[in-house]
Every structure is written in structure tokens, then in C-alpha cells.
Specification:
By secondary structure, the protein is of the alpha/beta class. It is built from 10 helices and 7 strands. The radius of gyration is 20 Å and the shape is globular. Bound molecules: S-adenosylmethionine (SAM). This is Class I SAM-dependent methyltransferase.
Length: 329
């Protein structure tokens, strides 16, 4: 197989993995809409499990992105063209359109785009919305994206699926108008440390003592067993299985912070950078207190997470970057 064939094969696999994932999720009652989502027990440890977690997690990401766009562009949302790359089933694009922006959501997965389009068509807020369209295709080769025509390019949990960061960011730069923004909210699994893993094991063990967590953890006390356990958690958190293989899709974790950040900085003028959270995203869907207590604990964990990252006790494992395609003089 030559390199082009190999790339095409990988893209095919990548798209199919997300086709399959979304089909399974939808079949089990998932509603990829931040305003209309419902409790969904199919998710055993994911924020989509309960609307309250969706608010804490994904809705906050949306407000962060919306506010960063508004702060970086001195125009009304209706005059701002946003491209979301790797939009999956489209919930962020939908919410940005509801905030008034003109939005294009692009994804490799045809099923994701069909589902995104269906939810957009059924949107009760359709009449108040900005223009919204979805496109199925590969970011590099899709010919329905016009060069120099976007004010903002957004990646939410998608940039780390691109192996060649120089190429994907150059493509984004080409698609942006001069003065346009790139916004990226990405996991940085290469930042997960054994300390983060030890903390995660401590927390899950304590929570599970009274069956308040989705998994049961044996109360290991021997140092060697604990070290092995921490090693397993470390791999799982990095989305690898025990053999170090990727588990979500073929291109998952193609780029870590070490690859993404230097290219973001060299391709765009940095306006904002921050570490967000370390562990709460991986935890709150797994809580098994009663419904009211679950939400209280989720809020507590989220705030503690922030503090632990700010005080550098834990390493942040997701970052938020805003950059600008600088104005030519
Ligand atoms: C981890 S998912 C994130 C989906 C969504 N942004 C979210 O946060 O739920 C990564 C997405 O990137 C898409 N993707 C990967 N490579 C792509 C490419 N070359 N062109 C367009 N989309 C791509 C995948 O199909 C997948 O839906």
C-alpha cells in the first residue's frame, strides 16, 4: 500500500468508527443536543449520562467557546462565519447557531452528519437560529470549504485526531480570513502523569467503597499491587489498552499537547491559553449516589479539579487555545 492509499484507508476506518459509535448511541436514546438531552443510562461513565452533567461539562465548553469568539471579534454573531471541524453529531455547531453565528459543521462521519442534520431540522429554536449547515467530508480534501472565507475555525476534541499538525493548522489558516480566529479545546493525554493516575485510583476506590461509583475497586493495600494498578489506570486514561493500542478510533491521540501546542503557537498569534481540567470529565458520569447527591458531588469534583490544576497538584489534561491569523501590515 502506498502512502496515499494508507491515508485513505485510515480516513475510511476513522469515519466508520464514528459512524458506528453514533449509531449505537442514538439506538440507545442519546440526544446530541445540549438543550434537549435526556437521562441516558447507556452511558455508564460519560457526561451524556445526565442532563446535569451535560450542563457542567459540555455546556460550559460551549459558553467558553462562544464567549471567546465574541471577545475576539468585534461584530455581531450574525456577521461571523464559524467552521467547526470534526463536529461529530453537531451539538456545538447547533448551539453556536442558536447563539446567532453562521455555522458550518464538518465531519468525516456521514452518519454523524446525517444525525446532526436531523437534530438541526427538528430544532424547536430553528426560527431564531443563525444559518447552520453540515457537510460530510475530509477536512483536507473537501472542496465545499472556501479559502479565506471563515472568521473562526473551531476544534472541540478533534484536533488531536490529526497526525500532521502543521498541515491541519495550515489548512485552517488558509480557510480563515486575515484577522480570523482559531479556537481549540482539546484533550492532552500525553500530559497525564502517574500522579494523575494515582489520584484517579484513590478517588475511584474511595467512591466505590459504598458502591457510589460505576466500577467496584478492590481495596488493594500491597505496594506492588497498587503500583500495577496505577500503571493500568495510567494506560486507560491515555486511551490505550494494555498493549498500548488506541481504543476509540484509529486516529485518536494522533497528536498530544507536545505536537499540537507548538504548531498552534507558530501558525497563529496566541490570544489565550489555559489548562482546564484534569479528571472530572472522566469521573462524573460514573457517580452512583442518588440523583441529587450525584449532581452535588459532580459540582464539587469539578471545582476541586480546577483548584488541583491551578495549584499544580495535578497536571491539566485538556487545554483551551485561542489564536489569530495575524493582520497583514
Ligand atoms: C473525538 S470526535 C469529537 C466529535 C465532537 N467534536 C465532540 O466533541 O463530540 C473527533 C471527530 O473528528 C472527526 N474527524 C477525524 N478526522 C477528520 C477529518 N480528516 N476530517 C473531518 N473530520 C474528521 C471524526 O469523524 C470525529 O467525529
Amino acid at each position: 500500500m502506498n502512502r496515499d492509499d494508507e491515508n485513505n484507508e485510515r480516513l475510511l476506518q476513522e469515519g466508520l468508527a464514528f459512524d458506528q459509535q453514533i449509531d449505537e448511541r442514538i439506538a440507545h436514546g442519546h440526544i446530541p443536543d445540549l438543550r434537549r438531552t435526556k437521562p441516558c443510562d447507556y452511558f455508564y461513565n460519560n457526561s451524556w449520562r445526565r442532563p446535569g452533567y451535560v450542563q457542567l461539562d459540555f455546556y460550559e465548553q460551549f459558553t467558553l467557546i462562544r464567549d471567546a469568539i465574541s471577545a475576539g471579534m468585534s461584530r455581531k454573531p450574525q456577521e461571523i462565519r464559524v467552521l467547526e471541524v470534526g463536529c461529530g453529531p453537531g451539538y456545538l455547531s447547533l448551539e453556536l447557531a442558536r447563539a446567532g453565528f453562521q455555522v458550518t459543521g464538518l465531519d468525516l462521519s456521514e452518519r454523524c452528519i446525517q444525525i446532526a442534520s436531523k437534530f438541526a431540522d427538528e430544532d424547536p429554536w430553528i426560527s431564531e437560529r443563525g444559518i447552520l449547515r453540515y457537510i460530510a467530508g475530509d477536512y483536507y480534501t473537501c472542496d465545499r470549504l472556501d479559502i479565506g472565507s471563515y472568521d473562526v475555525v473551531v476544534f472541540l476534541g478533534a484536533l488531536h485526531h490529526f497526525q500532521d499538525q502543521s498541515k491541519v493548522l495550515q489548512r485552517s489558516r488558509d480557510l480563515l480570513k486575515t484577522g480570523g480566529l482559531i479556537v481549540a479545546h482539546e484533550p492532552a493525554r500525553d500530559r497525564i502523569t502517574r500522579g494523575n493516575a494515582a489520584f484517579a485510583h484513590l478517588l475511584s476506590t474511595i467512591l466505590s467503597l459504598n458502591n457510589n461509583f460505576y466500577t467496584e475497586q478492590a481495596l488493594l493495600a500491597r505496594r506492588s499491587e497498587l503500583l500495577d494498578k496505577v500503571e493500568n489506570v495510567f494506560s486507560a486514561l491515555r486511551y490505550e489498552n494494555d498493549s498500548g493500542e488506541k481504543t476509540q478510533s484509529i486516529n485518536d491521540n494522533d497528536a498530544g499537547y507536545a505536537e499540537m501546542y507548538p504548531e498552534l503557537r507558530s501558525t497563529f498569534e496566541q490570544i489565550r491559553f489555559e489548562w482546564r481540567y484534569s479528571f472530572f470529565h472522566e469521573f462524573i458520569g460514573g457517580l452512583r449516589f442518588d440523583e441529587e447527591k450525584n449532581l452535588q458531588v459532580a459540582e464539587f469534583l469539578k471545582e476541586m479539579d480546577r483548584i488541583l490544576v491551578e495549584t499544580e497538584v495535578l497536571q491539566g489534561t485538556e487545554f483551551f487555545f485561542v489564536g489569530r491569523k495575524e493582520v497583514k501590515l
